[in-house]
Amino acid sequence: MAIFAYVSGALFAAAWWVFIDGTVSSGVKYDFVMWLPGIIGTAGFFMINSTKPAQLTGGDGGFLGEGGGSNKFRVWFFLSVLVSFLAVIAAVWIKLDYGKVKNDWSQHPWTGTSLIIQSAILIISAFCFWGARYRPSDDF
């Protein structure tokens, strides 16, 4: 299972590398908005990995010391996945907005595509690391 943690780290680095390549390979000036899919995807990565699979099945205690926490963990996990997919939606929106409407990327289509690929790789990396943390014999 440790190999998945290494693969997840490599994917995480590759996602940001794709973003950097998309930035450097074009002469388009990046606004802060173009950084948002990566920032949101990274936040989703940490949100997803803040829960353990055992917490979703109801085997754990409460959320922050309260009782009946499995439902709260499920809601948190759902919101985490939602935030991760929000990064992909934002990347597609930015590509369409800047590429079609503003026609900024007509000469450099890789720039917008790199945002989508980065967000998708960040989701794969998050679930790869989340699965790597699962050990059936974990008691903590």
Task: Describe the protein.
This protein has 140 residues and is mostly helical. The chain contains five helices and no strands. Helix 2 packs antiparallel against helix 4 and helix 4 packs antiparallel against helix 5. The radius of gyration is 18 Å and the shape is elongated. The model has no long low-confidence stretch (mean pLDDT 83).
Estimated radius of gyration: 18 Å
The helix/strand order is HHHHH
Average of per-residue pLDDT values: 83
Strand content: under 5%
Number of helices: 5
**Biggest sheet character:** none
* Low-pLDDT ranges: none
* Shape call: elongated
Please give the share of residues in helix. Answer: 55-70%
Number of strands: 0
> How far is the N terminus from the C terminus?
17 Å
Structural class: mainly alpha
SSE layout and pairing:
Layout (H helix, E strand, L loop, with lengths): L1 H23 L11 H13 L4 H4 L13 H32 L7 H24 L8
Helix pairs in contact: 1-5, 2-4, 2-5, 4-5
In short:
This protein has helices at 2-24, 36-48, 53-56, 70-101, 109-132.
Relevant terms:
single chain; 140 residues; mainly alpha; elongated
